[in-house]
Design a protein that fits this description.
The chain has 408 residues and is an alpha/beta fold. The chain is 37% helix and 17% strand.
Length: 408
């Protein structure tokens, strides 16, 4: 069977699925707009848009125009593959950036399986969740509505879709629910597992020295430090946590760019803004900003964590939460969807209201004061990840079965 993957940042969510399908004897090809990487058995080709967005276009339409430009570039690349003799039986796409819009025009008989990540709402989701940053007015709401133009096209074009959580599935319009499976990307629980002997060697700019699970360590991990993932709430709680735990070391992982939402209006990074807000209340000698780190370093950080904090708006669930649970971290997380789909309070983690700075401080401090009391909770967390989200025994087999059944 010929399989074509479309993903602007391939492999992305297909990092395990694409080589697994190749290993099963299928011919697997991928198209990506960004850096071409090597995956076993997968031929990867790049495409480049021939133009940028128009300067005079209506701002509401700019987002969709950008997606059409990408779709055109990806379409030209698909035609090139077709001319070289490659016709897929199934296309597996992340349609979020527009690349899948013209799949059916180029390969009319192909089956299209779409990875559905998010559907936008002006009310009741991420957009208006945080009153500190929510933008109000009908034009803002209208702009969010228009962002769904590509999503509606994608839903109408696909033969089937899948999404990582039930909450994300339920965000999609109800008329499409029976065409959407819920299958998570999967966690490699063999690799992402606890290790009491783990150690972290801090680089010299971060003070040098070695940390282990014998130290009292609070961890906070984001791709980038920004409000969408609760960085402002965490920083506001940190001074009180430090006051209650005088030997605590805090490790903060994340860049200073923007992954979600919007940049600040004053030109400063969110990291700078919220650090400046509280820095005079903090013992800076016990806080280490590590930036973006290599994956193995990140795993070491989680392995030595005493308490791990995960906060998020109602938005796409981070792999890091599931990886922390798989590592038997004691997780304090925000009581927001889809976190509540994974964590049950006092069963496999601890939940706090996203905006409750005092509640976060006290919950974390109490957990740090007696981590041994949560031994069963941490064991339960890992067992539930293995049962529901394990890559090799649960998620990948379900993904493969979906692909092969759809192609038939």
């Amino acid at each position: 069977m010929n399989i074509l993957f479309l993903h602007q940042n391939f492999p992305g969510q297909f990092v395990h699925l694409a080589p697994a399908l190749a290993k099963r004897g299928h011919k697997v090809v991928a198209l990506t707009m960004n850096r071409v990487i090597s995956l076993a058995g997968v031929q990867v080709f790049s495409y480049r848009p021939s133009r940028g967005s128009s300067k005079e276009i209506h701002p509401f339409a700019a987002d969709f125009e950008t997606k059409v430009i990408r779709a055109e570039a990806c379409g030209i690349a698909m035609i090139s593959l077709k001319q070289q003799g490659f016709t897929p039986h199934i296309v597996i796409a992340h349609p979020g950036w527009g690349e899948a819009l013209f799949v059916k025009d180029i390969f009319p008989q192909v089956k299209l399986l779409s990875f559905l990540e998010f559907f936008y709402y002006a009310q009741g989701s991420d957009f208006d969740f945080d009153p500190e940053f929510a933008e109000i007015g009908w034009k803002k709401n209208a702009a969010v509505r228009i962002k769904n133009a590509n999503n509606f096209f994608s839903l109408d074009l696909m033969d089937h879709g899948y999404t990582p959580t039930y909450w994300q599935r339920n965000l999609q319009p109800a008329q499409y629910h029976d065409k959407i499976s819920v299958i998570h990307d999967g966690i490699d629980t063999d690799k992402v597992s606890p290790d009491s002997q783990a150690a972290l060697h801090l680089p010299e700019p971060a003070g040098g020295g070695t940390l282990s699970a014998n130290d009292e360590i609070l961890t906070f991990v984001n791709r980038n430090l920004e409000p969408f993932r609760g960085y402002h709430i965490f920083m506001r709680a940190l001074a009180e946590i430090q006051r209650q735990r005088p030997k605590l070391i805090t490790l903060i992982v994340g860049g200073d760019q923007v992954s979600y939402g919007a940049p600040s209006s004053n030109g400063k990074t969110w990291k700078e803004i919220f650090f400046a807000e509280v820095k005079d209340q903090l013992d800076l000698s016990r806080i280490f900003f590590l930036g973006q780190v290599a994956y193995d370093t990140y795993l070491s950080i989680l392995k030595i964590s005493t308490v791990h904090v995960y906060l998020t708006y109602p938005f796409v669930l981070s792999w890091s939460l599931l990886e922390a649970l798989s590592m038997e971290c004691l997780v304090v997380a925000s009581k927001t969807p889809p976190v509540e789909e994974v964590i049950q309070h006092q069963h496999n983690g601890l939940l706090v209201d996203f905006f409750d700075v005092e509640g976060l401080s006290n919950t974390v401090s109490q957990a740090l004061s007696n981590p041994g009391a949560y031994h069963l909770l941490k064991k339960t967390a890992r067992q539930q990840i293995i049962k529901n989200y394990d890559l090799k025994t649960v998620c990948l087999p379900r993904q493969i079965a979906l692909v092969e059944s759809l192609s038939r």
